[in-house]
Write a structure and sequence with these properties.
Strand content: over 45%
Shape: globular
CATH architecture: Beta Barrel
Number of helices: 2
CATH topology: Lipocalin
Largest sheet: 10 strands, antiparallel, barrel
Helix content: under 10%
Radius of gyration: 17 Å
Mean pLDDT: 92
Number of strands: 10
Structural class: mainly beta
CATH class: Mainly Beta
Length: 180
């Protein structure tokens, strides 16, 4: 065995959700799989910037959590890709864990390419999923999954700098499930 070999992927990955939380895990479990994405960054002056990306969701930790990876641009386009205006180039991961003590999801986003780290609480809100938290600068953040179908979703990244209810749309992601 190579001194740097590891069983990490095999012990991290899970084939299915944990049976004792199956129903609650479906809030995000329906996203398991691979997605193509169109990303739209909205500048404060109204300018719009478009890019392509990819998203991958999978079960982890005995099926009690979901991990996903979000990339702008797509992996194949990353070498020498210029920075995406407003949002930057993403190569980050989210860990999503359902917490029965609060009947909600604890969410941690880590993006070392942009040095961005966020924690949020996610809950269903009608047909949508809304995650709320705060940025490192103290601004309120709200990330929402909307227009959810088996093969598509719309994700909105919003911020409220003043801590009030004046939300500004920063990034919009239109995702389509990759064909099998």
């Amino acid at each position: 065995m190579h001194p740097f070999s590891s069983q990490l992927i095999s012990v991290l990955h899970a084939e299915r959700p944990a049976p004792d939380r199956f129903d609650k895990l479906q809030l995000y479990g329906r996203f398991i799989g691979d997605w193509e994405a169109e990303i739209i960054a909205h500048a404060p002056d109204g300018a719009r910037h478009d890019a392509s990306g990819e998203i991958h969701f999978g079960w982890i930790l005995e099926g009690r959590a979901i991990q996903d990876v979000w990339m702008i641009p797509r992996l194949a386009e990353r070498p020498n890709a210029p920075p995406f205006p407003i949002a930057g180039n993403w190569y980050g991961t989210t860990i999503r864990v359902y917490d029965p003590n609060i009947d909600a999801w604890r969410i941690t986003w880590i993006d070392p390419t942009r040095n961005v780290f966020q924690q949020q609480i996610g809950r269903p809100r009608g047909p949508d999923i809304v995650q709320e938290g705060a940025t490192e600068s103290g601004a309120r953040s709200r990330w929402s999954f909307t227009r959810i179908t088996p093969d598509s979703f719309r994700w909105l990244g919003e911020a409220s700098a003043g801590g009030d209810s004046a939300w500004r749309l920063m990034v919009e992601v239109l995702a389509q499930r990759k064909a099998a």
